What does this fold into?
Amino acid sequence: MNAAGSVDDDQVWRDDARRVLAIAGATLRRLARDRSNIFFILIFPILLVLVVGIAFGGDDDLSLGVVAPADDPLADRVVSALRADGSLDLHDYASESTLRSAVEHGRVEGGVVVPSGFAEHLRAGDSVSIGFLAGPSGVGAALQPVVDAAVRSTSKPPASRPTRATATSMPRWRGRPRSSRRCPR
It folds into this structure.
């Protein structure tokens, strides 16, 4: 109480804090007495996180499909640059349609289509676009900067000309993948 006879706000706060600390201390002492409580509060949650992480944790490598002409040295350099990236798992496809199907059905997260005549067009100074397909999972879109970097690193022209090869997104497919059709009700 202060001189006027009223309760000081600081004193009330201190009393409340002491009560809270007394309750917390009593609860912690009660928990520490039984060793099984320590297991269920500290060890079990950590084990549960580890087990769930092992069970549902996936492969860290992102899968990327590639269609490239076999007789094009610059296309081979683009594919080699993508293979050199340790975070990518590359799969070769024979045609754009099989790659598109693989992306649609989730067998790969994304796809790269190097057009035929890639090296000839670059040598002629033409602008060349490398096709990029992103899967429905949303992870594929994160692959485009990796593909852009690989394309730019392999198609460096002489200093007098700017780089003309870029990875561009291809039109997305319409509809749902066949593997995710809904069952009739």
Notes: The chain has two domains: 9-56, 62-174. The first helix runs from residue 9 to 33.
